[in-house]
Amino acid sequence: MTNAIALLGSTGSIGRQTLETAELLGISVRSLGAYKNIKLLEDQTRKFKPDVVAVFDDAAAQDFKASVRDMDVRVVAGVDGLVEAACVEGASTVVTAVVGTVGLIPTLAAIEQGRTIALANKETLVCAGSVVMKAAKARGAEIIPVDSEHSALFQCLKAEKPEYVKKLILTASGGPFRGWSKGELARVTPEMALRHPNWRMGEKITIDSATMMNKGLELIEAAHLFGIPPEKIDIVVHPESIVHSMVEFNDNSVIAQLAQPDMRLPIQYALTYPERRPSLVDTLDLTKLSSGLTFEPPDFNAFPCLSLAIEAAKAGGTAPAVMNGANEAAVARFLAGEIGFYGIYESVCAALDNIAYIEEPSLEDLIAADKQAKQFVTESHAAS
Predict the structure, then answer these.
(1) For the chain, how big is the Rg over CA atoms in Å?
(2) Which of 156, 182, 224, 305 has the fewest CB neighbours in a 10 Å radius?
(3) pTM, two decimal places
(4) Angle between helices 38-48 and 13-25 (to 10 degrees)
(5) How far is CA 304 from the centre of its chain?
(6) How far are the Cα atoms of 37, 120, 323, 372 from residue 352, in angstroms, in the given order?
(7) CA quadruple 133, 319, 371, 149: dihedral positive or negative?
């Protein structure tokens, strides 16, 4: 169990729940990192008294520095600031809960120092999974997943030999639009898409859940985390969100991890691993599940982003980085009311069609591909 953490993305949903869990467990917080929610960040800083606070936005960093001038805390900014926060002295575990590829460089910096990574930033592996996992192996840095699905797989696989694995089974809630037709989905607004039935998450991941792109990103992340090819990863829709994922073995037995849909549990497991401690999560009483547990195949026709992500996973190279970057920019445009629900899929398709593919990319190639994809989607709007 870790006794001190660095936390990047402290003002987001995962970050707030990480601090709640750290307080419960008596884990000290050596650094915090956020984008620009400086009011909440100030409250967190005064409560947890970190040594370093990183504010990604330069202007917000200056405002934050003024607001905590009475405190003994080092305030840093930008990507370099996030790197400093990730590598703060005394933190054995780095929780990366920032949104988007901004988490990549700080995560790699922490890996280079051999820190344990509690990974809640899926874009890091989607964009540069091969580079990140290679670095982690070289430095002996353990990566423990925080996403509920990957935490479930991590737990199901711990006592098993890799050669016994037949396939991984990722569960998906189906989001707020499970069972909707394409015609109905075409009229979806940002306000409708932000109402997830089971989970309370940030805006970007909630939209990804609504398009089911999130499950495609998780498939790519799982392939890198567990060394399993995309062809051996299945997705099933499980609207109750009680079974968080499963592993099928070569004897056709299946092991699953079940719990209430509460992110504090996978967060806590990542911080206490290999120990288990009492948590704040409600006990799961299966006899009180009046609707039972249901499973169904995804609707790839209504949710084409899922198919797109699976295709990118199989293509490898720069395809996942382009897809991820284009999706980030397209989701931002959808939230701004600039494109419709299916405009996200169309934007990602266009980026994949127009940005050059590199089969064996370097880290620089992957970062460039992500940047090009974001720029392509953004500029396609400006030119229209």
Answers:
(1) 20
(2) 182
(3) 0.93
(4) 10
(5) 20
(6) 33, 25, 7, 11
(7) negative
- The pLDDT tens digits of the residues spanning 258-317 come to 999 999 999 999 999 999 999 999 999 999 887 789 999 999 999 999 999 999 999 999
List Cα–Cα distances, 29 to 10, 25, 130, 155, 157, in angstroms. 11, 11, 30, 26, 30
pLDDT tens per residue, range 347-382: 999 999 999 999 999 999 999 999 999 999 999 755
- Residue 100, by phi and psi: left (phi above 0), alpha (psi -120 to 50) or beta? left
How much is the mean pLDDT over the chain? 94
Evaluate whether 341 touches 185 at the Cβ level (below 8 Å): yes
Instruction: At 257, list the tokens.
Output: 């991890």
The residue behind tokens 């967060």 is: 267
